[in-house]
Design goal:
There is one protein chain. 40% of the residues lie in helices and 23% in strands. By secondary structure, it is an alpha/beta fold. It is globular and about 60 Å long. The mean pLDDT is 92.
């Protein structure tokens, strides 16, 4: 059986392959899905990829799987590990951080000001896939970014470095890396914080993903994956962001929630309301991603239990202490019994609510000589029209729609959350990440397939 395109999602634990046909027409089709454990521990992720394709072959009862195009997303072996180094934490550092997260990176270190010896030690321990240097508005402070560039260029590591700071430093930065014989590892992009109160993250995000593709060597066997793939490879969270941005341009402001086994990712694409914008303390990017590393319904299940409280969970689930302890003891990644499903649904709800409240901004009262003044800080989600659920939990659990509705219901008036009129959408085919990478080459086909999965006419 031959397909126009296969998209492989190479995760930390599972590799999923999605097959698509008619992607050059106005009616592209999602045909089938195969999955298998990711084979990082076996030294070659190709084993997991081939097993996922074989799983699809068995589901289709086909003798052979062929394809014209193979694309991929990856979060294997920790995904895209990045460190970010800027000048002022709430300005250039924040902008650089937003650029990295929106591109799909896992941030392992963020610093402001000059790098210290302990910072250098930690960078070497982390072994990042990409380092991002920012600092200084255009024609502003120069020395900090130059100092940090000197330090990083002289480290005994061959890591791609992106410079996204004061444009006056660009030629000097080039010289620093050339003199360190590392000019080939340097990428220069527009300043992420060109002027006060202006964030410019999209150029840096694009270069981060381009560099990820070029240096895709994060997991055992990924070099071979790069040889097999004849299209784009991007980080899986970055692919979800690409799909969210594509959808926002077509139907309006959106927030996408992915509750996973280890983390909960939220992607919002909205300019916010003009009313809130007028009282906002500092700028926010239109497309923002946050990742909550402590909120997962499998690997980090016990974190959520601790955050909510065991007694409260037992009361909410209406189960005894023995039943509760048994549920934790026999906990599975995919629930089977009614109690297991109720338990996972409650964990998913708590992960959804906590992560949404962390992602959203809120109101803040300031007191001065003129009295109290109410201002806003953080991401404004009040103009969001659609709340979208993707990932295993929010596409498969029976009460997934009600879980997402609770986001607006949970607002006590102090948070900039979506309102109750926001519509709920579900990625029913669980193909959003695949469509994000597909959109890089087949934008119209990706949009049609995404709307089919979301059941949007």
């Amino acid at each position: 059986m031959k397909f126009d395109c296969l998209v492989a999602e190479i995760g930390s634990t599972t590799t999923v392959v999605n097959a698509f046909n008619d992607i050059h027409t106005e009616n592209p089709k999602f045909i089938s899905q195969g999955q298998a454990p990711t084979s990082v521990t076996e030294g070659d992720v190709n084993i997991g990829l081939n097993n996922a394709i074989n799983d699809m072959k068995n589901r289709l009862d086909a003798d052979l799987i062929e394809y014209d195009k193979l694309l991929a997303t990856s979060s294997a072996a920790g995904g895209l590990k990045m460190t970010v180094h800027g000048l002022v934490y709430d300005m250039t550092v924040k902008a650089a951080k937003e650029a990295a997260l929106g591109a799909g990176a896992n941030l392992h270190m963020v610093t402001s000001g000059r790098l210290r010896r302990t910072d250098i030690k930690r960078i070497l321990e982390i072994k990042p896939n990409i380092i991002l240097i920012a600092g200084g508005v255009n024609y502003g402070e120069r020395d900090t970014a130059l100092y940090n560039a000197e330090v990083i260029a002289n480290l005994d590591i061959d890591v791609p470095v992106i410079y996204a700071g004061n444009i006056e430093n660009q030629e000097e930065i080039k010289l620093i890396f050339e003199e360190a014989s590392k000019g080939e590892y340097l990428y220069i992009v527009e300043n992420v914080y060109p002027v006060i109160d202006t964030i410019n993250v999209e150029p840096a995000r694009k270069v981060i993903q381009d560099v990820f593709e070029e240096h895709i060597i994060h997991a055992p066997g990924m070099e071979r994956i790069k040889e097999l793939v004849n299209g784009n490879i991007i980080p899986t969270p970055g692919a979800v962001m690409e799909a969210s941005k594509l959808l926002k341009d077509d139907i309006g402001d959106i927030i996408t929630i992915d509750v996973g086994g280890a983390t909960t990712d939220i992607h919002s694409v909205t300019e916010g309301s003009e009313e809130i914008s007028n009282i906002l303390l500092s700028p926010e990017p239109v497309a923002k991603r946050t990742v909550e590393g402590d909120l997962g319904v499998y690997v980090n299940m016990e974190n959520i239990v601790e955050l909510v409280g065991a007694k409260k969970l037992m009361a909410l689930l209406d189960i005894s202490n023995d039943e509760f302890e048994e549920a934790i003891k026999t906990y599975k990644p995919i629930p089977e019994t009614d109690i297991e499903k109720k338990f996972v649904e409650r964990l998913t709800l708590e992960a959804t609510l906590i992560s949404s409240h962390r992602h959203a901004g809120g109101f803040r009262d300031l007191f001065a000589n003129g009295g109290k003044k109410t201002l806003a800080e953080g991401k404004d989600l009040t103009s969001v029209k659609y709340i979208l659920g993707t990932g295993g939990a929010l596409t498969r659990l029976p009460n997934r729609i009600q879980i997402l509705k609770e986001i607006a219901m949970s607002n006590k008036g102090d948070k900039l959350l979506p309102n109750k009129e926001a519509q709920i959408l579900i990625d029913n085919d669980y193909i959003m990440a695949s469509l994000g990478v597909l959109s890089k080459e087949y934008k119209n086909a990706a949009l049609v397939l995404l709307k089919k999965s979301l059941k949007i006419n």
